[in-house]
Amino acid sequence: MIYYNEIPPPYGLSGYIKNFWALDVYEDIKKTKTINILADKFPRLVIQCLNGTSGTQNADTLEEVPFASLCGVASEHAKYIMHGRYSHIAIRFYPHAIKEIFGLDAHYAMNTFLDLHNFWPADFILKVVYAKTYHEKIRLLSDFIMAELQKRARKPDKLVSHFLFSGYKNPYKDTLSDYQISERHFVRRFRQTVGITPTMYKRMCRFEVSLQKLRTNNFNELIDISYEFNYADQSHFNREFKLFTGLTPTQFLSLQRKVEESNSFLSE
Length: 268
What we know:
This protein is α+β, with helices and mostly antiparallel strands. The protein has a domain at 2-154: Jelly Rolls. The protein contains 10 helices and 11 strands.
C-alpha cells in the first residue's frame, strides 16, 4: 500500500514553498522500487522518517542518499532505488528559495543531494523525524524556515523573480532590453539564485507543460504537442523529452507508474 499527499504551505511561506508532500510506502522490506526523478525546476528538501537511516541509493553508483537532504534544480533525470518500507516528509520550493532560505549560491545544489546537516542542526532534523504526525512535522519545518528567513532578511532579486514567474514567456532579447541589463550580468545573477541559466529555465518550463499534456492525455497525436509548444519538429520534441526524462514520450506513456508527483514517479 502507498500513501501520498500534497499539503499547501502556510500563508507566510507561500512565496517560497510550492507545497509539502508526504509519502509512505508499506511494502515487504525485501522489495525494492525505482524512484524516477525527471528534470525539475523546483528544488526539494527531503527528510526520510526511518529512525535516522536512509532508505534510498543512486541506482547507478549505489551511493546512499543522505536521510535528510537538499536538492537544487534538477536539469537532468536520475534513478534511485527505494528499499522496502519507506516514509518521508518533503518540501518542494520555488526556484529562488534555495539562496534566500539557505544562503547558498543555487548552482552548488544543482543535480545533487546535499546533506541537510550541513545547514540545519542535527537535533532539529531528528525532532522532525520522530514527530508523530505529518501535521506536527510540517509545523516544525514551517516555524524553522520562517525563523531562518527573518534571521537572514535577504531581499529577493527582483529581476530574477520577475523572469521566473512571467518574464520567461517573452523572447529572451526583449526581456534583457526591458531589464536594461547585459546578458552576461543577468546570467550570473540568475545562476546564483536558481542554479541554471535563463535559457535552460525556459527549456524546462516548456518541457513541464508538454509533460502535463502527456500525463492528462490532452492531445490527439504527439506531433500536436511538438507544434503547440514550438518545438522544431517531432524529432526535436523527442530528443528534448528524453534529455529530461531518460524516456521517449511513447516510452513514458507505456510505463506503469505506481505513484507520481510533480516531476518524479515510482515504478517496480
